Amino acid sequence: MAVSAASARPVPGPRGLPLFGNLAAFGRDPLAFFGRLRDHGDVVTWRLGPRRSVFVSRPDHIAEFLAAVEQTFEPLEIGWGLKQLVGDSVLLSKGADWRRKRTLVQPTVRPRHVRTYATTMVDCATELAGAWREGRRVDVRREMTRLTQRIVVRTLFGNDLEDDGGRLGDAMAAIQRELATELRGGVNLFLPSWARPPWRRRLLAAVTVVDAEIRRLIDARRAEDPADGRQDDLLGRLLAARDEDGRALTAREVRDEAVTLWAAGHETTSTTLTWTWLLLSRSPDAHARLTEELDRVLGGRPPAYEDYERLPWTRQIVKEALRLYPPAWVIPAVAGKDAALGGSPVRAGTIVWCSQWTTHRDPRWFRDPAAFRPERWDADAPDAVPDHAWFPFGGGRRTCLGARFALVEATLVLATLARRFHLEADPHDGRPAVGLLLQPAVPVRATVRAR
C-alpha cells in the first residue's frame, strides 16, 4: 500500500553547537536522536558536524529518496572503519564501478542459486540441533553466529574453516565493537585517515586476521582443478564472472566481494535470529502458533526450500523481528548535485538520512509499534502496511543483493531448530547496541528446552 504524497517542506531540528552541530547528540545515541528528529516532522534539517543533513521518515519520501540513489544521491561512507573491512566492494563502490560489480556479483545470489544453498542451511542447522540437549545453557548470539558462519562459509567457499570459524568469528566480533566505538564517539567520524587511536589499531588487527583467512581460502580455490567439482559455489561464481568486456574481477576485488558476502551473509542473519529467539521467548502465543505450523507442514521431517512458501507464520515471525530490530538501521546518501525531495529543494552536498529503526516503529504505520505481533503480516490483516514503511534491506537500485538468501536462511534455520527445541531466554531489556548492525547491548542467554 502506498501512502499519499506529502510535501517535504523541511523543518528545523534541535539546535546544535557551532561547528559541531548535532554531532554530540548523534554520537551519544543515534537511535534516540533520530526518534527526536521524527517527532519534529517528516523532513527535518540538522547538522552532522559542519555538514548539512536532512532526515526523512515518511514511507513515500523514503521511496523517492532510495529510488534516486545512484542517480541524484551517492551512498555515503559513514566513518573510516567499514571501508577497512569491505574495501571497494559493491557495498561502497559508486557509479560505473558499482554498476559493473553489481552485474558481476548479483548472479551469485539469484533465487535459483539460493535454492541450491537451502540444503546447506538446513544441514548446518540440523548439526547444531544434534549438539543441543535439554537444559543446556547457551549464549544465543554466539550459537547463531557460529551456525550462520558455517552456512556462509560452506556456500561461499564450499568447505568448513579449519578452526571451525573461530578466528574469523572472533575477528568480526572485534570489528563490530570498534565500529560501534567509531559511531558512538561522534568526533571519531571526522578523524583524519592517518590517525591511529587505539580503537583503529584494534580494528586493523582484526581486519588483518580476516584478510589472511579469506586470502588463504581464495588462493586454495584458485589452485584447484575445476574438474574437482568444487567451483559451483559463491566463490567459484565470483572467480568465473566476466563483465561485458570479458574482464574478470581482480584479486583485490574478489577479496572485497568475498569479505562482504561473508560478513553480510552471516552477521545479519545471526543478528536476526538472536532477536527472533528473544522475542519468541517472550511470546508464548506466537511460539505455540509456530510449533503448530511446523508440526502440520513438516510432519517431523526437516524443512526444504519448497517449505519456505509453505510456512507463512514462520516467515512472519522473521519479518516482524526484522521490523522491531532491523540489523541495518540507517541509510545515508549525499546529494551529488542540487536535487529535490517531495517537491522541496535539496542543495548539493546535503546528506539525506532515513532510518529503518525509526520508520519501523512509527505508530502512524504500525499499530502498537513496540509490540511483537507477527499477525500484523497476515494476508487478511486489517491494517495494511505502506510501501517502504518496512525496508530492512533498503530499496531502489541498491537493495541488498542477499535479501532473498537472508530471508530463506532465517526461515529455514528457525524451522529446523524450532521443530525440536525452544530457547527459554533469560530476562532481557531488549536494548540494542549501535554499531555496523543493531546487536543486543548485553548477551542473550537461554536454556534449551526440548519439545
Description:
Strands 1-2-3-9-6-4 form a six-stranded mixed β-sheet. Strands 5-13-10 form a three-stranded antiparallel β-sheet. A two-stranded antiparallel ribbon has the order 7-8. It is 48% helix and 12% strand. A hairpin with a 2-residue loop joins strand 2 and strand 3 (51-56). It is globular, with a radius of gyration of 22 Å. It has one domain: Cytochrome p450, CATH 1.10.630. The mean pLDDT is 89. It has helices spanning 23-28, 30-40, 59-68, 81-86, 95-105, 111-131, 140-157, 166-185, 198-222, 234-240, 251-281, 284-298, 312-324, 356-360, 403-418; strands at residues 11-12, 43-48, 51-56, 73-75, 137-139, 331-335, 339-341, 344-346, 351-354, 421-425, 432-434, 438-440, 445-450. The chain contains 15 helices and 13 strands. The two termini are 39 Å apart. With 451 residues, it is an alpha+beta fold.
Order of helices and strands: EHHEEHEHHHEHHHHHHHEEEEHHEEEE
Classify the oligomer: single chain
- The portion of residues assigned to helices is 40-55%
* Unreliable runs: none
The N- and C-terminal alpha carbons lie at a distance of: 39 Å
The 3D shape can be described as globular
What portion of residues belong to β-strands? Answer: 5-15%
Question: Strand sequence of the main sheet, in spatial order?
Answer: 1-2-3-9-6-4
